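Protein details
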Amino acid sequence: MTVAKALGHIRVLDLSRVLAGPWCSQNLADLGADVIKIERPGSGDDTRAWGPPYARDADGRDTSEAAYYLAANRGKRSVTVDIASAEGQQLIRELAAQSDVVLENYKVGQLKRYGLDYESLKAVKPDLVYCSITGFGQDGPYAHRAGYDFLIQGMGGLMSVTGERDDLPGGGPQKAGVALVDLMTGMYSTIAIQAALMHRDRSGEGQYIDMALLDVQVAMLANMGSNYLNSGKAPKRWGNAHPNIVPYQTFACSDGYIIVAAGNDGQYQKFVEAGGRADLATHERYASNPLRVQNRDELVPILAEMVKGKTRSEWIEQLEAVGVPCGPINDIGDVYQNPQVQARGLVTETPHPSAGKVKLVRSPMRLSGTPTDGGSAPPLLGQHTEEVLRELLGRSPEDIGALKGKGVL
């Protein structure tokens, strides 16, 4: 029995590369969309070369597929097209006419030179949904600047609230450990595209979506942005602590670190009672969260000394038993050994044309009626060029051979 896919009726022409755009189109592919990934002949997506590490074949030898590329491109079909050539541009226009969505992350105005901007493609597909992802958006004084995740984390305020406190050893700004702005821009773009498709289905109208990394970074400051807007005071770095909740941070046990996230007074009381310091639960300076925030500099060292008296496993067992949120700080290897991660089946092995099999992380989206699956492996460069041109554009083997001979494919 074939299981319906939520976006099984949608085709996406993906002109994006690196991470923000591919992350978006991978989400759409996970939901069942036919994603056609357009790549540069000969080299393809930049991330194909962002290794080591690479996928390995059955003999343990590196293939040409970088692990970075594998992380963001499952479930797609790869077609190589030189969009700088007139014949390549015509192929893109023809493919756009057969698609519901075009996704791109070129510099502002670059695709207009090729006749592949929204207005040009709208002429051949009036109800097209066209999503552009750039660093700073299509207008404003920074529109023509190149935008990279690291830069945006700094410019957009994330690094001002990430890292240890300036008055503590190691204090200073720190970027997130993954390209968080790229990933969140991909997620916001996924939502925007689906909203535009719903509007199209009701009205018959396509539309243009202007996504900017800086916009996303500012939006995702969340409570930190709200704290500033409502106080006029810029938040500072708190390391592994929380600006509004105490205790909500890491603590050193006798044999490692744990996180304690006491989100209310009841959880705080159970935490200190488990540590043999019930007196701290009713202390006049620590009994409520506002008091604990006000007096954190004197309370936290007391709590830190209390935590040192037990092992990590002892603390986790005791705190879980009384309902205090806590947990270990795992490295990535620990994550994939975690019984909950394993029970949820987050790692899949997918057949791959050169590596035999590759391990991928499955989509976290769980839909009961239209489930995602592991999808096909991230494609080899140009793996589906002939298939797509035959299937969608009716090109003959001779036509395709001629285009390859000219370097168009």
In short: The chain has a mean pLDDT of 94. The radius of gyration is 25 Å. Residues 180-203 form the longest helix (24 residues).
